[in-house]
Design a protein that fits this description.
- The chain is α+β, with helices and mostly antiparallel strands.
- The protein is 42% helix and 21% strand.
- Strands 5-4-6-3-1-13 form a six-stranded mixed sheet, sandwiched between helices. A four-stranded antiparallel sheet has the order 10-11-9-12. The chain has a three-stranded antiparallel sheet with strand order 2-7-8, covered by helices on one side.
- The longest helix has 25 residues, at 269-293.
- The N and C termini lie close together (9 Å).
- It binds alpha-D-galactopyranose.
- Alpha-D-galactopyranose (GLA) binds at residues 37-38, 40-41, 174-175, 177-178, 342-343.
């Protein structure tokens, strides 16, 4: 957590909304996924962790029904004002839709805000990096509402409500992973989540003498209206076919062997590849978590590499920039594993790097990326942090 962001957001609140007496400050984290990609909406497992970067808020209830929003990061748009009577699912098209979407999703569940709200936010997740800035805003909003309006919901509910807002208010058909990672984050632990049941378990990420390095391609990715929805459709097509021949409910129910036995029922080779990724990636995640629990980071790293290959070749959600980062990372001695993380088509990679190799990693990968791609990537040595909190 970076307390200068708390000061920043408080100052912004005072400037935009007047007096800051009675204002409370909050934080909710972004996330990085270690393994288990594009498995969440396939009824599989994911293994993300919350970061110490995220979104900060300063908020205070009002006496009327007005809603006023301000983002320090998007200062140009100024204060955006609306009211509790003006929620427009799938029509609001600016950043406030993440907050309004959460208010709307609460209201849908019978949690009515009796009065309006002034809220300023300020984030330190690089924009468009695929580290879930939007999920962090949704979880932050849910957490603020629970605190200020006394809504009786759990942190798991905050994830579900955040996903509902994203799917049905903002129009992005994401799975549960990002919101769950943010709302359930735990310092130094990754979350082993079964997305079919929402059963979860924390697993300590003990990296003795190693660091988690996130590398940003600085290529903006855009999920809404992109190939993400195509992948969901293709996965669903495969699921239906395999449900009829193999009696499964989700692709996450299949072992690799059973998939191989039944895969020829899927006639479209592209759809078959998509299903292969979803099945193998889920099983890879189970193996990877077992390896991590046994302290076998080498195996964990190799499975991260295999995850990238599968995302690149079978699920086809990587891109040249991500592939360059990963290929160059694999060449550096002291790198245990490296893969794209998140939705893909841009955003970041995640790598496990020995302490003594981190400087070389930055230098070698950084130079090669500039030569091959033509602009710079950015490195963040990240720490695993807690979920949402009052600060
Ligand atoms: C995005 C979505 C998640 C998940 C990942 C891919 O981050 O928001 O729900 O599907 O892509 O693993």
């Amino acid at each position: 957590m970076d307390l200068s962001f708390k000061e920043g957001v408080l100052k912004a609140f005072e400037e935009k909304f007047g007096a800051s007496d009675g204002v409370k400050c909050y934080f909710a984290p972004g996330r990085v996924n270690l393994i288990g990609e594009h498995t969440d909406y396939n009824g599989g497992h994911v293994f993300p962790c919350a970061l110490t970067i995220g979104t900060y808020a300063a908020a205070k209830k009002r006496d009327d029904r007005k809603l006023r929003f301000y983002s320090v990061n998007l200062d140009k748009t100024g204060v955006i004002e609306t009211s509790l009577d003006e929620f427009k699912p799938l029509k609001d098209d600016n950043w406030t839709s993440y907050l309004k979407g959460v208010m709307w999703a609460f209201e849908k569940r019978g949690f009515k805000m009796d009065r309006g709200l002034d809220i300023a936010i300020y984030g330190n997740i690089p924009n468009g990096s695929g580290l879930s800035s939007s999920a962090s805003i949704e979880v932050l909003t849910g957490f603020v509402l629970r605190d200020l309006y006394g809504f009786d919901v759990t942190n798991v509910d905050l994830a579900v409500i955040g996903q509902d807002a994203e799917n049905n208010y903002c129009g992005m058909n994401c799975g549960i992973m990002d919101q769950f990672a943010s709302s359930m984050g735990k310092k130094d632990n990754a979350i082993f989540l079964d997305c079919a049941t929402l059963n979860y378990e924390y697993a300590p990420v003990v990296l003795n003498g190693m660091k988690l390095v996130v590398t940003n391609t600085n290529k903006k990715h855009k999920l809404v209206g992109s190939a993400y929805n195509d992948r969901r459709r293709e996965s669903e097509e495969a699921r239906k076919i395999l449900a009829s021949v193999a009696g499964i409910k989700t692709l996450g129910d299949l072992s690799n062997e059973d998939f191989e036995k039944h895969k020829d029922a899927i006639k479209d080779p592209v759809v078959q590849k998509r299903a292969k990724h979803a099945v193998y990636e889920n099983n890879r995640t189970l193996t990877a978590v077992a390896a991590l629990k046994a302290g076998d980071i080498e195996t964990f790293g190799k499975l991260m590499n295999a995850s990238h290959v599968s995302l690149r070749d079978d699920f086809e959600v990587s891109c040249e920039e991500l592939d360059v980062l990963v290929e160059e990372a694999w060449k550096v001695p002291g790198v245990l594993g490296s893969r794209m993380t998140g939705g893909g088509f841009g955003g970041c990679t995640v790598s496990i790097v020995k302490d003594e190799a981190v400087e070389d990693f930055k230098k070698l990968v950084g130079e090669a990326y500039r030569n091959r791609v033509g602009y710079d990537c950015t490195f963040y040595v990240v720490s695993i942090g807690d979920g949402p909190q009052v600060i």
